[in-house]
Amino acid sequence: MIAVLTDFGVTDNYNGVVVATIKKLNPYANVEFITPQSKNFNVIAAAYQLYTSFKYFPRKTIFTVVVDPGVGTSRKAIIVKTKNYYFVGPDNGVLSWAANHDKIVEIRNFTNSNLYLSHSISNTFHGRDIFAVASAFLSLGLSMEIFGEKLTKIEKIPFQYSKEKNKHLGRVVFIDHFGNVATNIPFSVVNHISRVLIKDNEVKVKQVKSFGYAGRGELLVYENGYGFLEIGLREDSAANVLNVKEGDEICIEEYTQEDFSHFI
Amino acid sequence: MIAVLTDFGVTDNYNGVVVATIKKLNPYANVEFITPQSKNFNVIAAAYQLYTSFKYFPRKTIFTVVVDPGVGTSRKAIIVKTKNYYFVGPDNGVLSWAANHDKIVEIRNFTNSNLYLSHSISNTFHGRDIFAVASAFLSLGLSMEIFGEKLTKIEKIPFQYSKEKNKHLGRVVFIDHFGNVATNIPFSVVNHISRVLIKDNEVKVKQVKSFGYAGRGELLVYENGYGFLEIGLREDSAANVLNVKEGDEICIEEYTQEDFSHFI
Amino acid sequence: MIAVLTDFGVTDNYNGVVVATIKKLNPYANVEFITPQSKNFNVIAAAYQLYTSFKYFPRKTIFTVVVDPGVGTSRKAIIVKTKNYYFVGPDNGVLSWAANHDKIVEIRNFTNSNLYLSHSISNTFHGRDIFAVASAFLSLGLSMEIFGEKLTKIEKIPFQYSKEKNKHLGRVVFIDHFGNVATNIPFSVVNHISRVLIKDNEVKVKQVKSFGYAGRGELLVYENGYGFLEIGLREDSAANVLNVKEGDEICIEEYTQEDFSHFI
Question: Is the CB of C15 less than 8 angstroms away from the CB of B35?
């Protein structure tokens, strides 16, 4: 199985050509999309989408990721073998959260241009000419050393979550199409939420198990489907109300022992 | 074959994860989308999309429907066996038009949590943890009784079409991306249209066989691809011109014998 | 393999029903999308998308194209066999650039209504009732003569590229979802660009190999992934800045010998 994540979008023919190129080399490849329309040029959003989805795919799935604002420059095209999967994409950090989480076994710099798509090595469509081809060849059983020399590390995107006493400092990492605001704060480490600050402004939220438990118009905080703290609004967009975007700071303050002491 | 209908959208990774979860359990499942981007939280629109499409799929297709504003609350997760198909989804009425039309044979309340996705029973992602899993297990041949106790009925959405003398009273049930306005009035029961009223305002329309026969700017009434009366505008959005949304009332008045009597 | 290109969009169930109809007739068909959401009623954009993508698909792929503003009128439904592929769609020119490029071998007018989808010959959903069915039957090995009488030619869309001395006169043929402006001017015939004129206004552009080499805010001219001259803007929409749409004129002037003469 080959799982594709791109920012090519559903209105253009780029995803169709990526699938075609894979199928022309390996007609038996089973190609599915993580998403055909990740946010344009947004490497953080794509890294989060890959990170939160990869483990649901069958073992040995080959992930083909093309969110690549530096296409055609000197950034490398890499193939990463991890404990359970293969990852193919530009070396701009987009693969780093997922690949590191699954434990990297081997990295190759895909420089063997004999394998590139023959009729045209475009400077602007490496998704087709390089990444689709690498994925198809991997699915056919080619071994890692054929693609190019070994690398010792890949580019990383900093995760930027930290805990200081009763404060969890994180970032907005993804806003989904409902307008739910996902953060990189693991929900399991948060105990009793006292205050939520976004860009230093306090936000009134209600902690719930799921949307169904809330009235309309209330900002909600809950564990999202991938184990992260998320802020949503029932049948509406929390991102619009909060006016946030990927990368914005968020701070969750927990109640301390002291806050409770006068009850005891 | 498993046919998926969700409001998850093409920009998020939720549909990708649903497909992954199915394929991880059954690598031979053939997963296709009715639509990956039904209208957010719009149970009527999704019910119409399922109702109008199900019969075009091969017999024994398993329909997996996730338009589920009540996710995580006490609404049931159900599996419905009909004469020719299986339907999996929340018991919020979204399955009712299609399942009832094909004749319900058996209903199960999917409460056997041993079958739920092991690593995380999320409160917000039942599409993955419950509905995808149920569909995959059905496609592997598991029998209905394993999923949970029998139910005698499912939640229904009222269809709200009626005929009174020469008046057909119905609703707007779907506005497509072209802006065509589909109603729940079966075209075959309408004879000679005299007047069209939307929210009590008369609308000037021209009855045609298809768009190609009309000039630009004329509101058209015709039989849509699913046998229902629809109002469209050639290469433009009728919904914008009429300012309607799903659920709005529509009344079609036919000419009566009397209207014609002075000609005879 | 059946490759589908429609303007039905991802929010409606029309594409799902096309896939269902194909799979009901041929469960072993492998259906992929070139794009599920080409621009509404835009025959030029769809012709360009087909033309630039078809050769990446495996030989014998059956292309099913439904961008069909004249649906239900007298325009023909045609099946075109070319050197390497089959093309199915309305005879409105949308197939012409691709089919002619691959060399047409045989054309049939699909008038054998015994093969049309039985339960409903809709006037508005020929994508399902005629084109999906034709593609499924072709994939099952039915021979061309069964579909209808031979035709000697298909409708063409004029390509409208020409060269006059040092001027290349062409058109905007596609604006992708990033806002990049593709023209029908083959990049390989252009040597040293002196001036770019869009609708007679000179546009300042920088010639680059790919986006990564440019700063933000600079209009760029480069060879796109399909060999055509394209104008883009790094991580932004060139189409918005230039205020162009498909069909608009573009002129590329090259330096002449004279322009260089005083250097020699």
Answer: yes
Report the distance separating Cα A130 and Cα A137, nearest Å: 11
By percentage, how much of chain A surpasses pLDDT 90? 79
Say if pTM beats, i.e. exceeds, 0.80.
yes
The answer to whether domain A2-151 and domain A162-261 are alike in fold is no
Chains linked to A by 3 or more Cβ pairs within 8 Å = B, C
Fold of C162-261: Elongation Factor Tu (Ef-tu); domain 3 (2.40.30)
Mapping DSSP to helix (H, G, I), strand (E, B) and coil, where does residue C245 land? coil
- Closest-CA residue of C relative to A31 is C32
pLDDT, tens only, C171-203: 999 999 999 999 999 998 888 898 999 988 999
**C 116-175 residues with CB below 8 A of B?**
119-120, 122-125, 128-129
Question: Is A73 in Cβ contact with C213 (below 8 Å)?
Answer: yes
Residues of B with Cβ-Cβ distance to A53 under 8 angstroms? 13, 16-17, 20
From the list A10, A50, A176, which residue is nearest B12 (CB)? A176
Q: Nearest Cβ partner of C72 from B49, B178, B212?
A: B212
Q: Hey, which CATH number is domain B2-151, 3.40.50.10790, 3.40.50.1000, 3.20.20.220, 3.30.390.50?
A: 3.40.50.10790
Closest by Cα among A163, A226, C173, A158 to B16? A226
* Chain B residue with the nearest C-alpha to that of C42: B235
Q: Of B241, B45, B234, B33, whose CA–CA distance to C37 is shortest?
A: B33
Chain C positions touching A73 (Cβ under 8 A) are: 210, 212-213
Residue B63 to residue B135: CA distance in whole angstroms: 8
User: Maximum CA pair distance of chain C?
Assistant: 76
What are the beta bridge partners of residue B89?
B78
Statement: residue C119 has pLDDT above 70: no
Instruction: Provide the b/e sequence for A84-115 (b: ≥16 CB within 10 Å).
Output: ebbbbbbbbbbbbbbbeebebeebbebeeeeb
Distance of residue C18 Cα from the nearest chain B Cα, in angstroms: 8
pLDDT digits (tens, 9 = 90+) for A133-144: 999 999 999 999
Which residue from C58, C212, C227 is facing A23, i.e. has the nearest CB?
Answer: C58
Q: Do A11 and C58 touch (CB under 8 A)?
A: no
Q: State the complex-level ipTM.
A: 0.93
| A21 at interface of B, judged by CB pairs closer than 8 A | no
**The tokens of A176 are what?**
């989904």
Of B10, B14, B73, the CB nearest to A210: B73
Question: In 3D, which of B127, B76, B205 has the Cα closest to residue A178?
Answer: B127
Report which DSSP code applies to B212: G
Alpha-carbon distance values, B50 to A125, B44, B88 (Å): 37, 10, 12
Identify which of C155, C156, C90 has the alpha carbon closest to the alpha carbon of residue C124: C90
Q: How far apart are the first and last CA of chain C?
A: 57
> In chain C, what are the domain boundaries?
2-151, 162-261
Scan for tokens 């949308």, then name that residue. Answer: C94
d(CA C61, CA A16): 13
C9 and B44 in contact (C-beta within 8 Å)?
Answer: no
Please answer yes or no on whether C225 and A75 come within 8 Å at the CB atom.
Answer: no
